[in-house]
Write a sequence for this structure.
């Protein structure tokens, strides 16, 4: 059986003697100090609830991860650290059977875990842990800054470029679908811009203007070199537009509107 720590003040000696005698009769070792692997019974009265020694024993039991059974000699408010614990009210008379049943329940393998409260010792431990974590984070931050400055940590430029390429080409593909290609498209372009999302409108207008000025605003292969590199370019585009982009480029190639042969130097 688990040893039982019985905590009380002199004014509650009569009830304490009854509890001690009853528990020792059924084989429990009843001690005055908090014992490892034990269980603590605290007798509360109006006077003991204010007693610093009682509060110290409660804190010691919590730090030792023990179950605590509050026993009420008279109605009183429990200390904050254990105010949520179930209690045994013996203000109308001691009930040995109820106490033994509660001890048996908390001693069983299926018993709930002991209460966890923020005692002074646990608060100090938490503060020390926080200091260690903050210090470690600070050291890692400083080392990271030094690593960047001396060139030990280099951003993955190729990966970033690949992501940006997908964004750029995917955006341009959707914009290109809305660009005017006939006189009728040009006449309706203002309405097309109006129906587009506000975030897309500037890109749509500037791209159409760029194409009108014969600039390279959207990417499609326009030379033999571009056509040769197009499969690699297509792989870097978002998968949601790959098939449509490939089909569009193929159609333009068939119409001889996308690819212009690059002159080849035939000199010996």
């Amino acid at each position: 059986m688990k040893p039982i720590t019985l905590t009380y003040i002199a004014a509650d000696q009569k009830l304490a003697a009854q509890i001690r005698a009853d528990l020792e009769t059924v084989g429990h070792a009843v001690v005055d100090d908090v014992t490892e692997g034990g269980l603590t019974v605290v007798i509360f009265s109006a006077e003991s609830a204010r007693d610093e020694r009682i509060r110290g024993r409660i804190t010691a039991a919590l730090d030792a991860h023990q179950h605590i059974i509050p026993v009420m000699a008279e109605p009183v408010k429990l200390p904050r650290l254990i105010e949520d614990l179930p209690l045994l009210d013996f203000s109308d008379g001691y009930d040995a059977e109820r106490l033994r049943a509660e001890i048996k329940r908390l001693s069983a393998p299926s018993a709930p875990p002991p209460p966890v409260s923020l005692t002074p010792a646990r608060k100090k431990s938490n503060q020390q842990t926080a200091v260690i974590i903050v210090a470690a984070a600070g050291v890692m931050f400083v080392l990271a800054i030094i690593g960047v400055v001396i060139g030990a940590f280099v951003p993955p430029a190729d990966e970033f470029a690949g992501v940006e390429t997908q964004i750029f080409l995917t955006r341009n593909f959707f914009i290109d679908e809305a660009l005017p290609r006939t006189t009728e498209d040009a006449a309706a372009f203002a309405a097309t811009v109006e129906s587009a999302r506000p975030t897309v409108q500037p890109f749509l207008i500037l791209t159409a203007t760029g194409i009108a000025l014969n600039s390279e605003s959207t990417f499609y292969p326009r030379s033999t070199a571009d056509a040769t590199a197009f499969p690699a370019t297509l792989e870097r585009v978002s998968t949601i537009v790959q098939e449509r982009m490939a089909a569009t480029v193929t159609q333009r190639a068939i119409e001889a509107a996308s690819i212009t042969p690059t002159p080849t130097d035939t000199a010996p």
